[in-house]
Amino acid sequence: MKNEQELKDIVKDRYAKIAEQGKAENASSCCGATKPSNKVYNIMMDDYSETSGYVEDADLGLGCGLPTQFAKIKKGDTVIDLGSGAGNDCFVARHETGSEGKVIGVDFTPIMIQKARTNAEKLGYNNVEFREGDIDAMPVNDNVADVIVSNCVLNLVPNKQKVIGEIFRTLKPGGHFSISDIVLVGNLPDALKEDAEMYAGCVAEAIQKVEYLQFIKDVGFQNIQIQKEKPIVIPDDILEKYLSSEEVKTFNSSETGIFSITVYAEKPGTKQEKPKRKLAEINNEPCCAPDGNCC
Q: What stretches in the chain show pLDDT beneath 70?
């Protein structure tokens, strides 16, 4: 049985390699972590290409939803993206929050941080930054974010309760999150759960849907909603790497399910409205003109 740090090291190593793969290879495998199926499958991810703010160079094909689509981001918001990868969800969030807002991406894979920063510099986005660190110990102060998003990342972290606690800590009172993730209904065969590649591939450390939602409730979040849910079907030629032919048939005919869900929840409290900025401030002009007339 691997400990938390060993599991984190598996994911970090795998995602460092994924950063060097193409989107097509990642999208046709299990969250980019396993060798592609010999059939063309898009197992987890949703299509971002028509989403405002989408940046093709930052899309590695690793997500399992479109959390920014449901995140209710407003102009001027501060947004945190957990497991930001090459930056795609951050750039989509930046389109929603505008130049007057701020987006912080957190990722623990150095090469991903480097790729994301390069993409942000190419785009000239001075209000998007990327911080290296674990999402279960975020390099972010308390009560910072209006909105937190994440795309197929919490399932990779061994201590999910700690991550959800960090989300609660870093959200402002009245803030909210929208997170896409992988959950289970029923138990996966042990061969799938124990394999390191399937672990890094989003499935093996996924937990039961009921347990996942209970963690969110226990931390203190309210107004918990499932904004979207879809079944994940793993192709037989991938399953056959881990299971016998008979086990594949049994698995496919069972009620055990793997699902992508997008979950929304709010931190209790009243969200303080930001003071409206004067036009002169927005234009970086002095408030008072040289003739002494103040705006």
A: 1-2, 9, 12, 15-64, 194-204, 273-295
Residues 59-115 pLDDT 10s: 555 666 778 889 999 999 999 999 998 888 999 999 999 999 999 999 998 999 999
**CATH number of the domain encompassing residue 131:** 3.40.50.150
Residue-range definition of the domain harbouring residue 195: 4-270
Say what the pLDDT of residue 51 is.
62
Q: Is residue 173 part of a domain?
A: yes
Residue 128: inside a domain? yes
Count the domains in the chain: 1
Query: Does 286 reside within a domain?
Result: no
Please check whether residue 285 lies inside any domain of the structure. Answer: no
Per-residue CA distances from 126 to 65, 187, 267, 286 (Å): 26, 45, 28, 22
Cα torsion 55, 57, 62, 67 to 10°: value is -10
Nearest to 25 by CA among 11, 9, 43: 43
Compute the 3-state secondary structure of the chain and give helix, strand, coil in percent, each to the nearest 5: 35, 20, 45
Is residue 175 within 8 A of residue 266, CB to CB? The reply is yes
- List helix spans (H) across 50-109: 67-70, 88-97
